[in-house]
Amino acid sequence: MKVLLLVSFVSTLLITFCTGNPSEDYVSKCKYPSGCFQPRDQISKCISTTRPYAYDSATKTCRIHPRVGCGQNTCNYFSSLLECRQKCPAI
Fold it and tell me: Sorted alphabetically, which SUPFAM superfamilies does this protein's record hold (predicted)?
């Protein structure tokens, strides 16, 4: 029983750590298209099973950015290529 409680506590802690709510400052920076120019985070706090996309302002294209987990602190991440292209057309 103690092991089950410990496992559920640790799981809850990890989920909470990886899915925090964005602050007002974060939300205000994520207006598009200016959000497309936010830097891409290089540090992952969690393992991601998705292949997120980020806008690359140097090439003016949306590219796969594999170093993403949960907890990224930038709005330059998109769950699909279509979403990235819609929010960040070749600017």
Answer: BPTI-like (SSF57362)
For the chain, the three-class secondary structure string (H helix, E strand, C coil) is CHHHHHHHHHHHHHHHHHCCCCCHHHHHHCCCCHHHHCCCCCCCCCCCCCCCEEEECCCCEEEECCCCCCCCCCCCCECCHHHHHHHCCCC
User: Where are any strands of DSSP class E within 47-86?
Assistant: 53-56, 61-64
pTM of the model: 0.55
Residue ranges of domains in the chain, CATH in brackets: 40-91 (4.10.410.10)
Give the chain's length: 91
Distance separating alpha carbons of residues 87 and 83, to the nearest angstrom: 6
pLDDT beyond 70 at 89: yes
Residue type present at position 37: F
Summarize pLDDT for 32-47 with one digit per residue, the tens: 777 788 776 655 555 5
